[in-house]
Design brief:
This protein has helices at about 1-10, 35, 165-170, 205-210, 230-235, 305, 340-345, and strands spanning about 25-30, 45, 55-60, 70, 75, 80-85, 90, 100-105, 110-120, 125, 130-135, 145-150, 150, 155-160, 160, 185, 195-200, 200, 215, 215-225, 235-240, 240, 250-255, 260, 275-285, 295, 310-315, 325-335, 335, 350-355, 365, 370-380. The protein has about 375 residues and is mainly beta.
Length: about 375
């Protein structure tokens, strides 16, 4: 337990944490009636709960032609740190991102952030999983894992696919490589590369915390490693901004369940076979108070009840994923209600697509070794 607490304390500036040596941007915002005209909605003017793994902050505006050459962006940073350029200082974002540097109180640590204003470049409708960055994370010995990204029409990276790899890195002490993580890029996709998701033992540390397994997962959204250990369902933020009302999702999969299904106490449940999970949720990303709204793991723990959430418009799921060692096509249709056209046009809707190698992985139930492969996923909009 002591080791685990020390591990969590390392997240912000990578190296050993000491009092007052953190250097993170926690939130960023612009304000004022004139600047509000730039945005689709007031909630877009604020970026809250910025993860300590983020290095870029992007504000989405209606048109860059409307953006003035001087904008004051305000920041909340970690206690007693300093930021340069100063919070609230006038900066020109029309020529590209502005670099901000946050320095810890003791002056020994710093982090740089790219802050940008841009028009919406939303995810495309087909995903082939051909590209990954190799990131580092963990405790004492850094472990290397994959993070998937897509390229937009401008050739820029879009990192809207997330997984629990950053949290799993905290349970490893061996300098592990990407193939030792639950989620990584497989070279043997349906076409080119693909995704491999594998349910794995979370180590003695995870078992001691009552979280003995880690299902391989991939989803549209972001993973906040700060919550990974103490509140893992809060660490998974599902959904990214979407500009069309989806009707159907198709793709290809292979699946092999692990040999022994265990519960959260690592007790074997005889005759129970693990199952994979593929589903999607389309929902309103603004709550009744006008604030930004996201779905988290706790809301998606019971898909049968999620449709009762007034923020949710519709849900799609693959009812059955029989084990197969051949690439097999899957198809799922959305059920529920269409979102109001005006909300969709104003970017007020999010789409979450979720893949997991163990259906009950969020409850830390499943079979170690269960492996799900995914490739060539496409979102369709025809009625």
């Amino acid at each position: 337990m002591i080791t685990f607490v020390l591990c969590c304390c390392m997240i912000s500036c990578i190296k050993d944490e000491a009092p007052n040596n953190e250097c993170d941007i926690e939130s960023a915002w612009v304000e004022g009636a004139e600047l509000e005209k730039l945005f689709y909605k007031p909630a877009d003017m604020r970026k809250e709960n910025i993860s300590s793994t983020e290095t870029s902050i992007t504000f989405i505006v209606r048109s860059m032609a409307m953006v003035p050459t001087e904008i004051p962006v305000n920041f909340k940073i970690t206690d007693k740190a300093c930021i340069e350029p100063a919070s609230g200082s006038l900066q020109d974002f029309t020529k590209g991102p502005v670099t901000y540097t946050v320095t810890s109180e003791d002056g020994q640590w710093n982090r740089t952030y790219k802050v940008a204003f841009t028009e919406p470049i939303l995810p495309k409708s087909k995903f082939s999983y051909e590209n990954v960055d190799t990131l580092e994370g963990g405790f004492l010995v850094l472990n290397k894992y994959h993070q998937f990204y897509e390229l937009n029409q401008n050739g820029e990276k879009q990192r809207f696919w997330a997984s629990g790899n950053a949290g799993f890195a905290l349970s490893l002490f061996s300098g592990a490589g990407p193939k030792q993580f639950p989620t990584y890029m497989s070279e043997n996709g349906f076409e080119g590369n693909g995704v491999r998701l594998k349910t794995m033992y979370a180590g003695d540390l995870g078992k001691g915390m009552g979280k003995p397994i880690a299902a391989g997962n991939l989803y549209l959204g972001r993973f906040m490693v700060e919550y990974a250990a103490m509140d893992p369902l809060k660490a998974t933020e599902f959904g990214v901004q979407w500009d069309r009302d989806p009707v159907r999702i198709t793709g290809y999969y292979k699946y092999k369940p692990g040999p022994e299904f265990t519960n959260v106490k690592m007790e074997v449940i005889p005759d129970r076979i693990d199952e994979a999970s593929i589903y999607a949720v389309f929902y309103n990303n603004i709550d009744p108070n006008g604030s930004q709204y996201f779905l988290y793991g706790e809301e998606l723990a019971d898909l049968d009840k999620i449709i009762d959430n007034p923020q949710v418009y519709k849900v799609a799921r693959v009812s059955s994923l029989p084990p197969t060692d051949q690439w097999t096509r899957f198809e799922m249709f959305f059920e529920g209600r269409d979102a109001p056209e005006e909300l969709v046009a104003n970017k007020n809707c999010n789409l979450a697509i979720v893949f997991s190698s163990s259906k009950n992985g969020a409850q830390f139930e499943g079979a170690i070794g269960s492996t799900l492969y995914i490739d060539e996923v496409e979102v369709s909009y025809e009625k």
